[in-house]
Each structure stands twice: as C-alpha cells, then as structure tokens.
Backbone:
C-alpha cells in the first residue's frame, strides 16, 4: 500500500510540474479571461478590421493613380496612405504570435526608410520583402518616399522609368495587404485559444501581450518617435529620423499627428476602452485596481494615467513640426521625452511587479 501511495504521489507531482500547460491559475484570483476577451474582441480585432479597410482604400487609390497618373489622383493616394498610417498606430503595439513570426512591425514601419535600397529595387526589379535587408525598403516609410520624397513624383511616374516606379508602388501595397490579411485572419481564427490562455507563464497570452505593450511604449513610442530624433541616445539631434519624414517636410505636422494618434491608442488600450467607441471594458488598469497596486501612496493605475495625460499635453504643446522643434528648441523635446520616460518606470517596474510578470525582452539603450 505504501508503494502504491508513493507511486500515485510521484505521478501527481510529475503531472503538475511537467504538463507544460499555460492555463494554470495565475494565483491572484483576477479574471484574466475577461481582460483578454475585452482587449481581443473590443480593441484588437476591430482595430485590425478598421486598418484593413484603410488598406483596401489605399489599394483602390493606387489602382486609380496607375490608370490616371496625375496630381489629382496622387493627392487622393497620399490622403488614403496617411489615413492608413494613422490607423496603423492602433495596431503596431500588438506585435504578437503571427505578427512577431513574420516581422510584421518591422516590415510595416521601419523608419527612416532606405531610399538607396528602394531605388535599387526599382531599377533591378529583383527583391525579396522577406529579406531583412529589405525591411527598410517597404511598408509605410517606403510609401512615404514614393509618394512624397521624389523630386517630382508626376514626372517620374510618367517618365521613361515610370512603369518601374508604378510597379514597385503596386508591389509595396500588395505586400502590405497580404501580410495584413494573414495577421487579421489569425486573430479571428485563434481568438478562442488566445483568450483561454489565462495562466501566468512566459508563453501565456496576457504575459506576452503585456510585455509587447510595454516594449512598444518604451521603444516604438518613446525611443523611435521622440528619443532618437531628439538625440537622446546619440547625443546629437537627428531631426531627419522622425516618423513620416518626407510627408512631414510637406505638411509640417505629420510626425506629431502620428505620435498623438499612437499615444491615445496606448492610453485607451491600458484602460480597456473599446476601439473607436471608447466604451469602458476590462483593461490593465482594472487589474491594478483589483490588486490595490500603489505608487508612492497613489493608486498605480491613476499614476500611470496621469503620466499619460501629462505626456499627451506636453506633446500637444510642442511645435506642430517636430523637425522644427528639434532644430530650434530641442530642450522642450527632451523634457517631453523625460515625461514619457516616467511611464516606462511605472509600467515596466511597478506594474509588472504587481502582476508578477517577468520582462521578456532585452533593454539595449541603457534605460
């Protein structure tokens, strides 16, 4: 009998420790499934559907421009491209599962673009968009160059090599559409598996989603959109490194518009507010409230939201032209960066500590 009891005990221990399931109880009693369901059904899937609709409009505008290569149709194409670029700001933070596997984020928004690589691709008509060497020659930054960065777009598109430029433009759109369909479809087909992964492991849904959210805030938002152009890491201001460089030269406000769009997307996602309607739902803020998480005696979710609001205000008060701001008064840009940086500490240290989630990426910029 002792041998039987011992055998059963050992078997139970092996099963409980080695099953590999990520659906184990997270230990704090919070309903992670409700949070994952809300973010998936009310934020991610609708945001991807909206983005895909913008891509279809961009594709149609491209087709019309190829058939009618004039300034009127170029202007329409530019507007559809920028509308899609703004909608992209709502999904870039969700670099998870299939998107991470195919390097979706890097293919879509690696800036500044490599103009020399783009020109070589056009002339040689030989390129593989899955090759990392071509990540900076595709996506929204490449379209920025193709639509806004050529010396005279209409004369180039109607000139002797015009068909080659039009072909590359069409290929860029096709690649964006194909990759977006893959990611959008995965969110729909894998939805049930994603929201049922409620455990607290490195591979469970909320752990990966939270890490990607913080990584985006720290790198995509803070570093790429503000820190690098302001010279935080190089010691030298680099205004040509702003997002949407060529269109910003033309409009004087494109980079700031995208930044504010992105920051508002971060804030609403943190609070679990539905895409577009902004109706209340379960988000990371609710999780912190449930845990009675504090930051210097203040509720952590309130502290984080205060930093978000102060950062948005600081951004709004900057010159509409980020490039002009950096050139003429970079100090205010650096002060804004420091305000955004406060959010990194609250999210990456305080929030992850309360949620008992480990950081799953390497911080390479010394923060």
Residues:
């Amino acid at each position: 009998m002792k041998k039987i009891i011992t055998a059963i005990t050992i078997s139970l221990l092996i099963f409980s420790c080695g099953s590999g399931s990520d659906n184990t109880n997270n230990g704090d009693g919070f309903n992670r499934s409700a949070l994952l369901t809300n973010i998936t059904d009310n934020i991610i899937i609708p945001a991807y559907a909206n983005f895909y609709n913008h891509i279809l409009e961009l594709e149609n505008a491209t087709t019309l421009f190829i058939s009618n290569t004039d300034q009127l149709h170029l202007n329409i194409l530019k507007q559809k491209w920028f509308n899609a670029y703004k909608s992209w700001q709502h999904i870039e933070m969700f670099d998870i599962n299939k998107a991470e596997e195919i390097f979706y984020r890097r293919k879509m928004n690696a800036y500044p673009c490599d103009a020399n690589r783009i020109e070589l691709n056009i002339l040689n008509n030989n390129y593989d968009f899955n090759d990392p060497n071509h990540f900076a020659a595709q996506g929204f930054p490449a379209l920025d160059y193709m639509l806004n960065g050529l010396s005279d777009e209409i004369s180039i598109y109607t000139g002797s090599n015009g068909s080659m430029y039009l072909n590359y433009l069409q290929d860029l759109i096709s690649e964006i559409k194909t990759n977006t369909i893959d990611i959008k479809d995965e969110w729909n087909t894998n939805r049930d598996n994603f929201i049922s992964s409620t455990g607290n492991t490195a591979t469970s849904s909320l752990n990966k989603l939270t890490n990607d959210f913080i990584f985006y805030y720290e790198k995509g938002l803070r570093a790429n959109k503000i820190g690098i152009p302001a010279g935080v890491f190089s010691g030298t201001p680099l205004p040509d490194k702003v997002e949407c460089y060529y269109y910003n030269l033309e409009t004087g406000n494109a980079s700031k518009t995208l930044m504010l769009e992105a920051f508002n997307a971060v804030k609403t996602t943190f609070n679990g507010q539905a895409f577009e309607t902004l109706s209340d739902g379960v988000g990371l803020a609710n999780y912190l409230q449930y845990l009675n998480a504090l930051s210097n005696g203040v509720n952590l979710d309130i502290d984080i939201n205060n930093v978000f609001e102060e950062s948005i205000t600081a951004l709004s008060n900057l010159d509409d032209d980020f490039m002009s701001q950096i050139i003429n008064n970079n100090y205010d840009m650096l002060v804004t960066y420091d305000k955004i940086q406060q959010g990194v500490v609250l999210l990456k240290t305080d929030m992850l500590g309360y949620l008992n989630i480990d950081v799953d990426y390497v911080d390479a910029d010394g923060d």
